[in-house]
Write a structure and sequence with these properties.
two-stranded antiparallel sheet; mainly alpha
Amino acid sequence: MSADFSPELKMERKPKLAERVVSALRSQVISGEIAPGEKLPTESRMTEVFGVSRTVIREAITTLAADGLVEARQGAGVFVVERPSQAFLTISAENGNRISNAINVLEVRMGIEIESAGLAALRRNSAQEAQIQEAFLEFERLLERREATGKADFAFHRAIAVATNNPFYVEILDALGNRAIPCDVTSPWGTDELLTVDYQIGLQREHFEILKAISAGDAETARAAMRHHLTASQQRYRARLHGRYEEYLSLLGKGRKDEPKQERNHD
């Protein structure tokens, strides 16, 4: 039986409606109100409940699927996954655009993906290597067309996880979802500074070094290339965070400078 919704989850038309729908559905999944294995209501039902268009509902479902909470089954509908990765639900539930969140996610990815790259270099088969190359080339194609590259970026890293032939690497990366990829316009941590073509060209150069090492079967170089890639991303975000702090100090100093002096009252 399909789940239903509480009336208080209905929403008015406001900016970022898809994020609001995602937040409401995610809360119901995490709380168990919509149980694992349960089918979500139809698009028509959800458009009525949330007061939004089908496009908004589809965008929300895509986000939840990327976060590993739901899966679409052809001809059957959308279902809550049987065993969502509970350890990462709090990460997926982050709705803010704090840069510190992106830095934390990258730190987790470093703990996973450096070894993932090394194992992929040792264990990948020809089909898995081809998938990594295809994701790399798709990123390149999108970059040339000046289109969002986030999905291709995530596909590249996921294909490397698949090539470890250890399903837990894939499960953890899926739990983090494509929000871990900051260079896409759909990321809550994307900024104008991080969405430039030059920034993404730099990412692709780093991807190429990882790809070369994996294709050569060089585990240590693959680990080093992945470490460099993720460390560089962290540094870029820390620089952006530092820039915001400097901007705050500048504004604070200006405010104090412009503040009229007040006479002291003496008892």
